[in-house]
Design a protein that fits this description.
Layout: H1 10-21, H2 24-28, H3 30-36, H4 40-68, H5 74-79, H6 86-118, H7 127-139, H8 141-159, H9 163-190, H10 195-203, H11 212-225, H12 232-237, H13 246-274, H14 283-294, H15 300-331, H16 337-356, H17 372-399, H18 402-410, H19 417-442
Helix pairs in contact: 1-9, 1-13, 1-15, 3-13, 4-11, 4-13, 4-17, 4-18, 4-19, 6-8, 6-15, 6-16, 6-17, 7-14, 8-15, 8-16, 9-13, 9-15, 10-13, 11-19, 14-15, 15-16, 17-19
Amino acid sequence: MEKRENWGSKLGFILASAGSAIGIGAIWKLPYVAATAGGGAFFILFLILTLFIVTPILIAEFVIGRSSQGDAITAYSKLAKGSKWNLLGKMGVVGASILFSFYSVVGGWIITYLYKAFTFSLDGLSQSELLAEFGKTTADPNISLLSTFVFILLNILVVSRGVVAGIEKMSKFMMPALFILFVVLIIRSLTLDGALEGVIYFLKPDFAHITGSTILITLGQAFFSLSVGLSVMVTYSSYLDRSVSLPGSAISVALMNMTVSLLAGLAIFPAVFALDIKPDAGPGLLFVILPAIFNQLPFGAVFFIIFLILFLFAALTSSFSMLEATVAPIMSQGISRKKASSMIGLFIMLLAVPSALSFGVFSDIHIFGKTFFELADFLVSNLMLPIGAFFIAIFVGFRLPRKLLIEEFTASSRFGKKVFIIWLFLIKYIAPIGILFVFLSAIGLLK
């Protein structure tokens, strides 16, 4: 069995964890939701809910991982011997596999569009032509499968190199690069005529939007923004020594995630308003709206390439953690990292095929009214994530010894026992209630 690794530095762990949290949704969805749900008021509410409901669960995953020094499955077996709690870890590994499979399809689209951007095949196209081009691209089975496999292969190459030489090394490069690219794009966006109107639209606080429904939407965004619930952070924190503060690291990750969403909005909305283009969220933003914007700017192709590279970095740093969470349990069985990474990677490639073909060959196949891609997304986002997060909160709050919790929470931390008591109250009572509301809303039982 290979010797178990540790993160090379505190910064490496925080950047890798932040990279895991900062996914595509933080850039192409959250800014749009913020702009249409109260602007600055949304971000104030989002910050409060993130810090008091989501971050406590992130700390809980950190506690499970570091105290057990085990992967997502063995961690629960070590901490609750003879119980069925390891089923929570198994569900997390299955969820991470499904998430990685359909996430890789989107990662593949980014790679495809990077090729299109470098070959100038999108230059001069109108918004309607770009929409048709996106539909044509995603429907092509050869392009969809090849690009998805390339994205998965990139993950295999990084994860197979190990925690320090692979994940940490790439995160230390990609995360600072992501922030630098954002600054470049924001400067360009803010220099456009009419850009200020976009900034006002994005950030002006409108507390009239803060209703019960908005609070529920914001809570859902806060919950999903850090992707807690699949025990991915259990795996990452299992490589952590006791010289790192768990609550301090969790707060850093949460604040970095929110900062990226703010930067994304400042890069996108000024340009959207300056060029009088209707804002959008999701794939339409990246593959239709943004190229339409940049086609109207001098050197627009260059800035679009920068944006695509930024999205690719965000996608990869998230998917590294998904693959690592599924590779670690295989390694615990005595299989080498390289072999485990290749085995799981090939399995994910097969698992990704139905999702990759959901926009073309399999577009007419529906299960419960959903395509394979939509079904995989629903299973993970609406069921596995909230269920996993709920039981992680229960496990840490009611099953683990109080002594262990205090030791992990206060180790190398400026947060003492008084803050610990607040965290324990949040994790035992407030977080589970919040998750329950999100879950009922996600499955349509709460409006």
